[in-house]
Amino acid sequence: MKQICSELAKTLHLRAVWGSTLCAVMIAPVLTAFNALSIREALEMRSAEGYEMRGIGQSEALITIALLAYIGSMIFWQEWQKNLPEVGGGRQSISTRLAMPRASRWIFAKFVVVTLLSAAVMSLALAGGVIVSQIVLRGYSIDVDAALILRTLLYGVLMALFSAGLTLLLRSGLVPTVWLVANSTVVSIGYLVAQKWPGAWYFPDTVGSALIRIDAEPGMPSSLMAGVFMSVWVVLVWISGIIRERVSDE
Fold first, then answer.
1. Largest distance between two CA atoms of the chain
2. Which of 171, 188, 156 minimizes the C-alpha distance to 70?
């Protein structure tokens, strides 16, 4: 418990994490407000009759998921970044090893921190998005899909954990940050490949997104299978990262 509190305090002192967390919580409700206002205006003009109301307030959380991937990566990446000369230089991992010689302890502590922080941020973002959509579209029938909300929450947590585990394995957050953030905001290479080869749906950058897709596509796994395979990817990168740390300790 003491190690978890220590890692949580260290994480909350990172400016990058603070800024990203604030943006991750606020961006979904803000985007929801803009989209809901446009939908309300169209409904009032009767140009959006039959519009699918399902998912409003949750689909906007994709940007939050991208930021969670960045936050998960930063929680580990800080360990291998150089400290400022004013505080003695070196790397954060050295002081971490001195405080917790056993790699499994500080890795487990970071696992808990990533899980709790990503779950809290995702919950606040989704709650904010749903509340804003209900306020802006008051008077119209809005379907709040509880199952979709839970799947989106799970996707956010798993993406943060996968990014953190990949950073642990590579000892760098550059690849996880660029790959996973671009995947959630710009284009998913795995998704493009999946249009030609259904097996690509099980790539780590693609299978998680199947959790939150409302309309099924050819070859796309079910929500249950997507959750299972994404969890398997998370376990694989974390186990690989732990093995690398133990080998480097010997």
1. 69
2. 156
